């Protein structure tokens, strides 16, 4: 998902559509946040996979952090609600850490 999202963002940026690139970068950050807060993610049997994925996402976040920072809080809340609603409907939602604390953790990887 990160690779295809990264390619999509690259296409938007190359076409001068920073607004679209920003939306998809922020959308993927929230998507990853909610996915990495699912109960199965915490399962210790998946520790190696989880660690590798978090490191890979850390690179993604660092690449698009400036886009993340450029989005007003109200817009982030709207995008978050879109992603969160789907996760709640799928019955796979669990918020064990705030997004800001999680991003601080991810950025240190």
Q: List segments where confidence is low: pLDDT < 50 over at least 5 consecutive residues.
A: none
Fraction in beta strands = under 5%
SSE-based structural type = mainly alpha
Arithmetic mean of pLDDT: 90
Helix content: over 70%
- Biggest sheet character: none
Please provide the ordered H/E string of secondary-structure elements. Answer: HHHHHH
Distance between the termini: 20 Å
Strand tally: 0
Present the secondary structure layout.
Blueprint: H1 2-14, H2 18-35, H3 39-42, H4 47-70, H5 73-89, H6 99-107
Helix pairs in contact: 1-2, 2-4, 2-5
Outline:
By secondary structure, the chain is mostly helical.
Key attributes of the depicted protein:
109 residues, 78% helix, mainly alpha
Task: Explain how this protein is built.
The protein is an all-alpha fold. It has one domain (2-107). Helix content is 78%, strand content 0%. It has 6 helices and no strands.
């Amino acid at each position: 998902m990160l690779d295809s999202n990264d390619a999509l963002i690259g296409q938007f940026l190359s076409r001068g559509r920073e607004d679209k690139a920003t939306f998809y970068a922020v959308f993927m950050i929230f998507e990853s946040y909610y996915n990495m807060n699912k109960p199965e993610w915490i399962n210790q049997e998946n520790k190696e996979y989880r660690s590798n994925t978090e490191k890979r996402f850390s690179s993604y976040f660092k690449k698009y952090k400036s886009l993340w920072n450029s989005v007003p809080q109200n817009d982030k809340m709207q995008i978050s609600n879109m992603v969160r609603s789907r996760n709640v409907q799928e019955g796979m939602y669990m918020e064990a850490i705030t997004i800001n604390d999680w991003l601080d953790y991810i950025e240190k990887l």
